[in-house]
Amino acid sequence: MIKSKLINKIADQHPNLTTRDVERVVDSILDTITGAMCQGKRVELRGFGAFSVRKRDQRKGRNPRTGETVEVKAKHVPFYKMGKDMKDRLNA
Amino acid sequence: MSEKTLTRADLAEAIHKSVGLTRTESSALVEDVLDLIIDSLAKDEVVKLSGFGVFTPRKKSPRVGRNPKTGETAAITERRVVTFRPSQLMKDKVDRALS
User: Fold this and answer.
1) Which long-range contacts (CB under 8 A, 24 or more apart) does B16-23 make?
2) Total domain count for chain A?
3) Nearest by CB to B33, which of A10, A42, A80?
4) Does the beta carbon of A41 lie under 8 angstroms from any beta carbon of chain B?
5) In the structure, what pLDDT confidence band is assigned to residue B71 with cuts at 50, 70 and 90?
6) pTM for this model (two decimals)
7) Residues A46 and A33 grouped into a single domain
8) Is the domain of A32 the same as that of A76?
9) Are residue A48 and residue A31 in the same domain, yes or no?
């Protein structure tokens, strides 16, 4: 399922809203989650899962083509962990 | 929104503010969106949200595990899990904001 299909289905469930409204709703949800992570915050959606940011230390990497050692800088990466309700519904 | 953790209520509040829907309707929409994503994953569909990331349902094979406390071996049954791969856009935004 892609975002446009998600938007259309939600719009079908909410006949009082236009597709454009639902698009703004979905964008608002996704942007809020990304925005929270940009502030290093965690987003906990009980049943769905939790989004958080993990720190990756600086490390020495290797250019696979030349074999050269390169310094890979420390970075922050988005992380998601599945929630219990989702786990149960996938394993029912 | 100064706390360390956001919840459904914060998402509903964001909708209420940016789209101008009532808080009740905003909460219902958060629930419906999350439910629909779970439904799709339960039907074994990949969920691609452009600019955000991709949720992929995966099947894990049964294996023999170990109780880390007692050291006893235990059978782990086959199960389905969901992995999330953030979009390059999200990765860039988060890394840039925090480094």
Assistant:
1) B18/A24, B18/A28, B19/A21, B19/A24, B19/A25, B19/A28, B21/A17, B21/A21, B21/A25
2) 2
3) A10
4) yes
5) confident
6) 0.90
7) no
8) no
9) no
